[in-house]
Recover the amino acids of this structure.
């Protein structure tokens, strides 16, 4: 039987070789010959995430403690997992050391038992001195690549240390209350009745003090809430979609912001994504939140577009790293349309796709009056609107674009070790192309909300400034946040301060289309 330490070390090893963390976890756990309980899977998850979160420090400790070359490439990750347990968990040190020694004998070679035992026991004896020694190296002190540290230090000269440390903190379990199903006060009362401590955040958020499986929380099956960070909950408020509007969520997966828009207004909404597996997440979310009267339909670019008649609900999840770091739960089932693909008219998105219940042909305004939202999930490339747009402008567009995910590394620690400096410029080019492609779809007087989960200005302020220079009819509005919310202009800063402003680092820019 492979121990949790061995499984976690194999996950870390795969990530360091270029595999995303969710894919590596799935591969290692699914390939295990052992029947793993949910508790064991959860423990492996914790060890892998924690080890990668602090990999810079743990790797430096291994190197200073090791008196010989590692030999087997699994040995450094295996020792790092044990060091993570000794530093960041409450497990008894003797048990961690014993398990690591046995794991090394099983997964590497029996001859390394003494080496691992001596290394870990030396760490326990000299912990403070060793930590002080490795802290002289910024990569070891902050657990980020050197180029990442330099970039954050340059762009945030007064707060760079705080931002880096916040990215290594354990993220909270933050929920967004579904206002169409319950109230925050009622949900908090249900949590208290279940002896679960929680605090409020933002207008509709709740932070659960002791994270636990969301499916075991009160109201999960009834669609009372979904998982969404406090920073992401601001998107729907800034977009300010109102009853009767046509709304485009251009990069919708996994659906957190889509469902929030539908909870706040009765709109005609197109949820677009070019990844079949991730679009399926939107569909799953639209089946759980029980959005009041919402009509939903999903289709791929080459399938017929029947009138929507499926009642749905939805669920949001933390922001995941965008391509080239997709979640990767499943592969695509339909080919991605190329830049030359053109769809027949009946396959384009339009008001005629929406119905109010069984009343065929009801308009957006009629549906809004009946407090009904309508949503279509479409697999298509937002950068190629000629293949899916019907020519009718949208009143609101949410462009939550692919990015480096540098603002959400506390939730996706693999990003730190998978990204390269050249990726940032590549993302900025993709972001600029998406903005240019989506802008003609926005109605005059309409609003486009540009959003990233990045801290880097190349993907944020620079992209927006260059866009406005190309489009003089675009007016950039910097969002307003409360003074006690950590932010710099439209950039929400990652924070692990007490509940109320515990948030990821998202960037927002509001773009108005003037006459």
């Amino acid at each position: 039987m492979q121990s949790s330490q061995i499984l976690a070390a194999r996950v870390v090893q795969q990530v360091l070789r270029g595999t995303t963390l969710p894919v590596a976890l799935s591969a290692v756990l699914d390939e295990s010959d052992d029947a793993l309980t949910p508790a064991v899977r959860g423990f492996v998850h914790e060890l892998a995430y924690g080890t990668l979160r602090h990999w810079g420090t743990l790797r430096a400790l291994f190197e200073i403690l090791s008196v010989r070359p590692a030999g087997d490439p699994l040995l450094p990750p295996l020792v790092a997992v044990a060091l993570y347990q000794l530093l960041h968990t409450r497990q008894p040190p003797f048990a961690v050391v014993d398990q690591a020694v046995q794991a090394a004998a099983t997964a590497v070679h029996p001859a390394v038992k003494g080496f691992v035992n001596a290394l870990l026991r030396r760490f326990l004896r000299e912990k403070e001195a060793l930590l002080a020694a490795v802290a002289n190296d910024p990569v070891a002190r902050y657990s980020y690549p050197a180029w990442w540290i330099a970039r954050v230090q340059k762009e945030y000269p007064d707060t760079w240390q705080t931002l880096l440390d916040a990215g290594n903190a354990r993220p909270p379990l933050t929920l967004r209350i579904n206002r169409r199903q319950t109230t925050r006060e009622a949900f908090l009362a249900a949590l208290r009745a279940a002896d679960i401590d929680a605090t409020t955040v933002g207008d509709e958020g709740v932070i659960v003090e002791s994270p636990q499986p969301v499916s075991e929380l009160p109201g999960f099956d009834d669609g009372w809430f979904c998982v969404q960070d406090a920073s992401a909950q601001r998107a729907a408020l800034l977009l300010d979609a109102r009853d009767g509007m046509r709304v485009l969520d251009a990069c919708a997966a996994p659906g957190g912001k889509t469902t929030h828009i539908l909870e706040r207004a009765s709109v005609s909404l197109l949820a677009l994504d070019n990844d079949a597996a991730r679009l399926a997440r939107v569909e799953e979310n639209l089946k759980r939140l029980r959005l009041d009267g919402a009509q939903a339909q999903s289709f791929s670019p080459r399938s017929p577009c029947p009138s929507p008649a499926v009642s749905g609900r939805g669920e949001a999840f933390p922001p995941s790293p965008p391509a080239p770091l997709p979640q990767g739960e499943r592969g695509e089932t339909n080919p991605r349309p190329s830049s030359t693909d053109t769809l027949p008219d009946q396959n384009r998105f339009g008001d005629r796709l929406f119905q109010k219940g069984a009343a065929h042909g009801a308009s957006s305004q009629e549906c809004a009056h009946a407090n009904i939202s309508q949503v279509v999930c479409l697999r298509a490339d937002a950068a190629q609107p000629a293949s899916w747009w019907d020519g009718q402008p949208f009143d609101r567009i949410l462009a939550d674009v692919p990015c480096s995910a540098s603002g959400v590394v506390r939730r996706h620690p693999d990003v730190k070790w998978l990204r390269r400096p050249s990726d940032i410029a590549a993302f900025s080019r993709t972001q600029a192309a998406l903005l240019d492609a989506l802008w003609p779809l926005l109605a005059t007087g309409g609003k486009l909300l540009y959003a990233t989960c990045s801290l880097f200005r190349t993907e944020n302020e620079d992209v927006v400034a260059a866009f406005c220079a190309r489009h003089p009819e675009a007016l950039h509005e910097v969002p307003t946040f409360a003074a006690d919310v950590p932010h710099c202009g439209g950039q929400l800063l990652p924070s692990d301060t007490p509940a109320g402003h515990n948030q990821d680092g998202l960037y927002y820019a509001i773009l108005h289309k003037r006459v």
Summary: The first strand starts at residue 173 and ends at 177. The first helix runs from residue 4 to 16. DSSP finds 19 helices and 15 strands in the chain. The chain has a mean pLDDT of 86.
